[in-house]
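It would be a great kindness if you could assist me with a short task in structural biology. I am sending you one protein, given as its amino acid sequence and as whole-number tokens for its backbone shapes. I would ask you to consider whether the tokens describe a fold that such a sequence might reasonably adopt. The full record is reproduced below for your convenience.
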Amino acid sequence: MAGHEGPAVAQVSRETGVPLIMDPAGGDTVTKWDRTPTVVRTALSSSQVGHPFGDYLYNEVGLRNVTFIG
């Protein structure tokens, strides 16, 4: 499921109460900021891929401002 499809499917899950297990869902919204209690993510979200690299750049390289474009 692509990132733009996740929120739409999650809304149906929320409205019907039917649990949804999302595997390759890219968007963060459904399980992070606008969390849907009937949805469980079993794969990485889009932003999680960059977290370790951002931590490395901050702590090891000393950068304080970085932009990721994906």
The longest helix spans residues 6-16. Residues 6-61 form one domain. The chain has a mean pLDDT of 82. Residues 54 and 60 are 10 Å apart (CA to CA).
